[in-house]
Design a protein that fits this description.
heterodimer; A: mainly alpha; Four Helix Bundle (Hemerythrin (Met), subunit A); 0% strand; globular; B: mainly alpha
């Protein structure tokens, strides 16, 4: 019971928090002053963006750790953060497209913010595919760490792009300024819920990666330990 | 013992010498780029696209696709007869090896751009509205942006299974800034930059270029150790 609570508790709290924030954000809070109902995306979009960027930055840290120490735990953590980051990045781009259509009239514009975000997600997707193609664990760890570090170099550019190249995309949201204080808690709740869910997914993926690695290592040892099976049917008798 | 810049210079010279000796391969890549531009021109014309407006994007796409062939080649040559292992035994730092190779790739890609540009003028009927130095600056930034990640990923995928899949997968996303900002900047150079937008696109290109050259240079040593 405690094990299940520990395993799923954070996720359940995250989902409940997200549901509460969505309910208040969609049905209770008033529409945004300029954008109206479309502005309700502010209750989920910046949070998703921050969570994905945190995942990619964490993947970068783990990639450096993996190159530095050569320990498999860093490599598994890097892969976990990258996977969840890509998931969140895809969600982020989808949310942005849905918001852009009624606001800008198109799903996509060629603004530096959008370009750099798409590059970030695609780069990490490439890292994940590279991991699938390389079978040797040592090479996979080194190569994917290198690719992750290069991909992560895009993260600060994504963050500062709206300041460096002012275009259609608005500046980073500031809960203290952009929200009426009555409903700032909704944005905060959504942020905590997204972060909890992100952490939970990363943790689940990391555990799975550790189990997979242990299983593969055990399987690799098996032929040496077990006597070979005779499948030809030709026995002693 | 020669210094870092001397090492870079020696590797650079060696790379250009190798390219010169393998002229047939380099020429093949050039013809591939021209063929791609021709296909874009035919396809665009057939689809009723305004070729003049899309010419910058077609030019950069041809350069990108041809560069993939070049980078697939650069380190594959090194894997033959254990050339890379012997190269690593020389008193040359991996960073110098990277910068030498990347600079040579920049020169080769610049040469490719010099071949493709007149072909584009003929095929797409474009002229230069802004000064020529702007065209050279934008093309230079694009080529620099391709060379660093291409060289690194060339080394990384040289002995990877399915290099033809892995190299574009890793390389293409990193090229999006060069493709998008480069296309915008080049289009403005060819059609007129009324609102002075070229510098801002050049800043974007330059940012990615600096980032790629620094980060790839730092990581190259780990990659060649693993190869």
């Amino acid at each position: 019971m405690i094990g299940k609570l520990r395993r799923y508790g954070v996720g359940v709290v995250g989902f409940v928090g997200l549901a509460v924030a969505h309910y208040f954000g969609l049905f209770v809070a008033p529409g945004e002053a300029m954008m109206g109902d479309v502005g309700r995306i502010l209750y989920i979009h910046p949070q998703t963006a921050q969570a994905s960027m945190i995942c990619f930055l964490a993947a970068f840290v783990c990639a450096v750790g993996s190159l530095w120490t050569g320990k498999s735990g860093w490599d598994d953590a890097m892969a976990s953060f990258a996977e969840v980051g890509v998931l969140l990045g895809v969600l982020l781009l989808a949310q942005g497209c849905l918001w852009a259509k009624p606001t800008w009239g198109v799903y996509w514009v060629w603004s530096p913010r959008l370009i750099t975000s798409a590059v970030m997600v695609l780069s990490f997707a490439g890292v994940l595919i590279l991991r699938r193609l390389v079978e040797d664990p040592a090479r996979r760890a080194t190569w994917s760490a290198v690719a992750a570090i290069i991909s992560a170099a895009d993260v600060p550019i994504v963050w500062f792009s709206v300041k460096w190249w002012r275009d259609q995309h608005q500046m980073q949201s500031d809960v203290a300024k952009d929200f009426a204080q009555t409903f700032a808690w909704v944005a905060h709740t959504s942020w905590f819920a997204v972060m909890l869910l992100t952490g939970w997914l990363v943790w689940l993926r990391y555990r799975l990666a550790r189990v997979e690695r242990a299983h593969l290592e055990t399987a690799a040892d098996l032929p040496a330990r077990a006597a070979p099976l005779n499948l030809d049917g030709g026995g002693e008798g | 013992m020669i210094g870092f810049s001397g090492q870079v210079r020696e590797v650079f010279r060696r790379e250009l010498l190798v390219a010169w000796r393998g002229k047939a391969r380099i020429l093949g890549i050039g013809f591939f780029g021209i063929a791609v531009m021709l296909l874009f021109a035919v396809g665009g014309e057939a689809a009723g696209a305004r070729l003049t407006k899309s010419s910058a994007a077609y030019f950069i796409l041809a350069e990108l696709l041809a560069s993939t062939l070049l980078f697939a080649l650069i380190f594959r040559i090194e894997t033959e007869d254990e050339a890379l292992e012997m190269l690593m035994m020389l008193p040359i730092s991996p960073s110098a090896l990277f910068y030498g190779k990347a600079l040579a790739a920049t020169v080769l890609l610049g040469g490719l751009a010099c071949v493709l540009a007149p072909v584009g003028v003929v095929l797409f009927g474009v002229g230069l509205v802004e000064p020529a130095w702007m065209l050279i600056a934008v093309c230079g930034l694009i080529v620099f942006g391709l060379a660093a990640p291409g060289t690194l990923y060339s080394a990384l995928t040289a002995r990877a299974p399915a290099q033809e899949i892995v190299l574009p997968l890793l390389y293409f996303p990193l090229l999006l800034p060069a493709l998008l900002a480069g296309s915008r900047a080049l289009t403005l150079v060819l059609t007129g930059d009324v609102m002075t937008q070229v510098p801002s696109w050049c800043y974007l290109l330059a940012c990615f270029d600096i980032l790629y050259w620094v980060v790839c240079g730092l990581l190259f040593g780990r990659v060649v150790e693993g190869v």
